[in-house]
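Help needed: design a sequence for this.
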């Protein structure tokens, strides 16, 4: 007789120890607090009070001590002060990037969205469903075993089985071009307006993308810039500490800096990704800022669209990830995308990682004729 069998629930029976349980939560809090260890620990303590995360045998003080022993945080004396503060180490920064990458891939596994971009065949590292006869120089790792054995049986019979070069077939692979990518992150004040934290998902996705490229595609390059009233380049290690400022949105400055960086890159495939939630509201006119946060200013709009056209002439597509869906903002992004010939995604915060990773992978499969 089929039925259900109930057993008593025992905490941590999956083998997760108290440190790992708290460390998972602490990493998330550290991203939200932009790397402020003291604030993250304060939040963790509050969560412990509410949800009893610790036990009599292992408390928050034990967790802090173990964090320090394992090299995830360190004590440093505050400048001109007589007391110390905890700071994240390089080991912690690496742990944050790896966790971000795992989280984004979990999103990809759960996704049911299709992918409609064209794929080109050529030398690469990812098999397609197509096979072709083996030729000298083909990678033996891509040999299609079933098809090759079938050919051997047909060509030589079963009684005197043998496998020759003429029997071999190999899988076609997707062409993987070297890619130089600039990721632009909007840090204007609107990224935290209306009670919605948009900057945390943006920097988390940036950390995941950085970890993917540096570990799996080391010949590719990823440069990250942030833009508000101005634009400046940041390093990968700075991502956990990224914060929104009291800035307007100078998209032109961001694109200018992105083009300057890509001019120095030798990879044949160049690409700009831009995460933003609003319209451009600022440009430089001479040595002064020209700002208009109300509506779409024609002067600012024309300069921004001119940059889109400039990128197109240089064969540099811009993919815009829009995390706001106001109709007039969507209309602006449509205009920008049309002028550049790039792509635009209107994404929720939860789907941002999926869209960016799929776009990066598809861009690597483009083939340029020079």
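Sure. Designed sequence:
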């Amino acid at each position: 007789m089929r039925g259900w069998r109930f057993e008593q629930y025992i905490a941590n029976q999956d083998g997760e120890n108290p440190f790992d349980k708290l460390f998972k939560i602490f990493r998330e809090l550290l991203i939200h607090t932009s790397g402020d260890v003291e604030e993250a620990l304060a939040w963790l303590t509050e969560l412990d009070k509410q949800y009893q995360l610790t036990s009599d045998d292992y408390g928050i003080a034990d967790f802090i001590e173990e964090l320090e022993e394992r090299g995830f945080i360190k004590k440093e004396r505050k400048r001109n002060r007589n007391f110390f503060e905890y700071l994240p180490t390089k080991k912690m920064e690496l742990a944050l990037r790896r966790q971000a990458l795992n989280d984004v891939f979990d999103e990809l596994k759960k996704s049911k969205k299709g992918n409609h971009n064209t794929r080109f065949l050529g030398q690469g590292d990812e098999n397609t469903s197509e096979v072709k006869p083996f030729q000298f120089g083909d990678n033996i790792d891509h040999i299609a075993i079933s098809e090759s054995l079938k050919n051997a049986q047909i060509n030589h019979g079963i009684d005197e089985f043998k496998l020759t070069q003429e029997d071999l077939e190999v899988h076609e692979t997707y062409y993987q071009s070297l890619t130089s990518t600039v990721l632009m992150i909007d840090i204007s004040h609107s990224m935290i307006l209306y009670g919605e934290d948009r900057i945390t998902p943006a920097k988390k996705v940036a950390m995941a993308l950085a970890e993917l490229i540096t570990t799996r595609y080391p010949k590719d390059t990823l440069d990250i810039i942030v833009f508000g009233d101005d634009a400046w380049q940041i390093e990968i290690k700075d991502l956990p500490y990224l914060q929104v400022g009291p800035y307007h949105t100078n998209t032109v400055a961001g694109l200018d800096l992105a083009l300057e960086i890509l001019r120095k890159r030798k990879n044949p495939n160049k690409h700009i990704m831009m995460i933003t939630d609003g319209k451009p509201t600022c440009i430089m006119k001479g040595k002064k800022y020209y700002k208009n946060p109300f509506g779409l200013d024609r002067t600012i709009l024309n300069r921004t669209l001119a940059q889109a056209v400039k990128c197109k002439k240089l064969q540099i597509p811009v993919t815009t990830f829009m995390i706001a869906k106001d109709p007039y903002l969507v209309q602006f992004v449509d205009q920008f995308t049309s002028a550049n010939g790039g792509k635009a995604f209107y994404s929720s915060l939860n789907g941002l990682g999926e869209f960016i990773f799929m776009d990066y992978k598809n861009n690597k499969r483009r083939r340029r004729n020079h």
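The chain is about 40% helix and 20% strand.
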